[in-house]
Amino acid sequence: MAKPRTATPITETVYTRARYWQDVPDEKWMDWRWQMSHRLNSVAELEKVINLTESERKALSAKGLFRVDITPYFASLIDPDDPNCPVRKQILPTDKEMVPFESMMEDSLAEDKHSPVPGLVHRYPDRVLMLVTTQCATYCRYCTRSRIVGDPTQTFSRSEFDAQIEYIENTPQVRDVLLSGGDPMVLAPKLLDMILARLRDIPHVEIIRIGARVPVFLPMRVTQEFADMLSKYHPLWLNIHVNHPK
Ligand code: SF4
Hints:
- By secondary structure, the chain is an alpha/beta fold.
- It has two domains: 19-98, no CATH class; 112-239, TIM Barrel (Alpha-Beta Barrel), CATH 3.20.20.70.
- Helix content is 28%, strand content 8%.
- The protein has ten helices and five strands.
- Strands 1-2-3-4-5 form a five-stranded mixed sheet, with helices on one face.
- It binds iron/sulfur cluster (SF4).
């Protein structure tokens, strides 16, 4: 019998949470929309749960330099008193990042040079990288695409998705499509569904991969309903990118 489609996260576990959120009802804590709308990005908000260092405070106060947004769930995994906590180092900037260095590059992987249409990178003959959003659940310090990721003015339009898909349709050597961004799992499900359906309809596309950190930053997003939508396109490969056992 088919499982009912629900918006409930697949696991019933109430994930780790910092004391600051102890009184938030489980129902809200486990709601990915609540997590997204309560992300932390200012010194004042972060100080409620983490003892910030001077260096972090300085970087967080620099206007328009770093995109910082941290889900309450992921912030709860940080050791509030350890400046070297490996979870914290992934997402909190320090003032060291404000110092320019000789070999710094905006586009260190030279993706823009290999982009035949906006948002599509075709560097290797049989595979393409399809950027479907510039938004993520939480932003990483080491992002190689930070020139566009997190910038709300850099979004992809429906006509750009069409141009990306048409390019793949007209390029038969492409057998592997990696959806990335930003994080494709923050896209509206209907839009992701549409993109996956169109890619699945292309006979020469054998492999579809999704590069996502949502299962790490926002596991509540993986609801039964969302998993059911993805499962229509099985086999899909999900590259999750976990940096630390915490
Ligand atoms: S989740 Fe990926 S795209 Fe988003 S900030 Fe982190 S590395 Fe960059």
